[in-house]
Amino acid sequence: MSHAPAKAFLRALAGETVTPPPFWLMRQAGRYLPEYREVRAGCRGFLDLCYSPDKATEVTLQPLRRYGFSAAILFSDILVVPDALGQAVAFKEGEGPKLPPIRDGKALAKLSLEGFASHLAPVFETVSRLSKAIPAETALIGFAGAPWTVATYMVEGSGSKDFIETKKLAYGQPDVFKALIDLLVQATGDYLITQIDHGAEAIQLFDSWAGVLPEDEFEKWVIAPTQRLVERLKRERPGIPVIGFPRGAGALLLPYVEKTGVDAVSLDTGVPLEWAAKMLQPKVTVQGNLDPILLITGGEAMDRAIDRILSTLGRGPFIFNLGHGILPSTPPEHVARLAERVKAWR
């Protein structure tokens, strides 16, 4: 007979209603914390921090010491996957990531899974260290970018507002684009399974640009690859819950939840609470979805919004979070106020 996991975060992911609900925040380790900025200043570049187990472990633990979150999330970046496949990633200060773009089969053929695991060994070392260092009641989340979102960076060669090159490739040369997605499904699965083997207790898939696709393409490039990934994780590492975050998916959240097999869905700021409670929460645990700007604003506006989320979603399987990541200009004391409010809720 299996018994429910003791950690509040994992109990909520198993479908239990936990009061007060577990909580963590996307980008909880980051530039809003002075102690993070201090560690970051000692690194050559952003990826240097991701590939340094000492420093990545330290910055993951910093917000736990301050706020007592229910979960820690590995400090890394979704672009370590293309980097490990042989598409060199560079982060330019103030410009975001730069990659040599992949726009045809020839460029795609240069990528390889050879050396993938050894390239990511420092990340796995960080997961191992974290699993020993976090408090006993805290869960450890491993993560990766979902194939569609990672592919957008690989094809565009940077972040994008309109994803012209990626969509042109997906719509115009679907066979080439599918080969890229297939490679990412394989690589991401390998990456997540190794994180689990080093101590990750739950997985979050970040599909930050899911919301830019029309319905039939969303089905093809967001739902189908995610479903394949989740199926593999469930088959090879049963019992490890998966949270999907298809940001901006709107009404397509429903088929996403029904078809991908995720255990929980993270809601962006734009998802209506009552709709989520009625349509999604009976099927999966929901996570979200305070506007990160309210966390910057603080005060009564933030308190009211926190209370509304808690009273609407807190009566079912729920994890409190933001609708996207913490922004650098967030005052740390506002995060402390949020933590107190969520912990005190009944």
Backbone structural class? alpha/beta
Helicity, as a percent range: 40-55%
Which regions are unreliable across 5 or more consecutive residues at pLDDT < 50?
none
Total beta strand runs? 9
Label the CATH architecture.
Alpha-Beta Barrel
Pfam family, one: URO-D
GO cellular component, one term: cytosol
Pathway: Porphyrin-containing compound metabolism; protoporphyrin-IX biosynthesis; coproporphyrinogen-III from 5-aminolevulinate: step 4/4
Protein name: uroporphyrinogen decarboxylase
Question: What does the model show?
Answer:
This protein has one domain (8-344): TIM Barrel (Alpha-Beta Barrel). It contains 17 helices and nine strands. The chain has helices spanning 8-13, 34-41, 46-50, 53-67, 80-85, 105-109, 116-119, 121-133, 147-156, 164-172, 174-197, 215-236, 253-260, 273-280, 292-297, 299-313, 332-344; strands at residues 71-73, 90-92, 96-98, 139-145, 202-207, 242-246, 264-266, 285-290, 318-322. It is globular and about 55 Å long. Pathway: Porphyrin-containing compound metabolism; protoporphyrin-IX biosynthesis; coproporphyrinogen-III from 5-aminolevulinate: step 4/4. It comes from mine drainage metagenome.
Write the layout of secondary structure elements.
Layout: H1 8-13, H2 34-41, H3 46-50, H4 53-67, E1 71-73, H5 80-85, E2 90-92, E3 96-98, H6 105-109, H7 116-119, H8 121-133, E4 139-145, H9 147-156, H10 164-172, H11 174-197, E5 202-207, H12 215-236, E6 242-246, H13 253-260, E7 264-266, H14 273-280, E8 285-290, H15 292-297, H16 299-313, E9 318-322, H17 332-344
Parallel strand pairs: 1-4, 4-5, 5-6, 6-7, 7-8, 8-9
Antiparallel strand pairs: 2-3
